[in-house]
Amino acid sequence: MLDFSVTFAITIFNIIFLTVILRKILFKPVSRFMAERARRIRDSIDAAQADRAEARELLERYQEKLKEAQAEAERIVDCARGKAGAQADRIVAEGKRAADDIVAQARAQVESERQKALARFGMEAAALVVAASSRLTQREFSGEDRRRYAAMLLDELSALPAQPGAQKGKR
Questions:
Q1: Does any domain span residue 21?
Q2: Is 170 part of any domain?
Q3: 121, 148 in Cβ contact below 8 A?
Q4: Over the stretch 42-96, which tens digit does the pLDDT of each residue have?
Q5: How far apart are CA 7 and CA 16, in angstroms?
Q6: Does the residue 43 lie in any domain?
């Protein structure tokens, strides 16, 4: 059967003694170290999750601000395009007005020159008629007679109605 000897009792005593001592000296500090380490890991995980949530929130805010900035930039570009279009229309209208003024001045000048040319032509025609009349009548007209006959001829010509086709160049 079993024989319990003193060595057996000493071995049991040693096991119990070592268990109590190791528990007090080694097990409790190791348990505390492990618990502290587990707590630090949990705290790190919690902090990382909080940082991740904050980063997501910041990212959302930045994306929202980016969208607002893009909308603002688009609004500014549209406004600038509108202003540029209005300015271009204004410049074109001013150019058209200036061109119309130049054309009107040119037409007025042409009309003035035409009137002068007609007057010169009328005077020369009257002089030719007076000269032809003096040859036909074989009589020399004095300077005063020439002027009087030329004025009479011009008055009669200006009293005549304008012939169709004489004003072809006019618009």
A1: yes
A2: no
A3: no
A4: 999 999 999 999 999 999 999 999 999 999 999 999 999 999 999 999 999 999 9
A5: 14
A6: yes
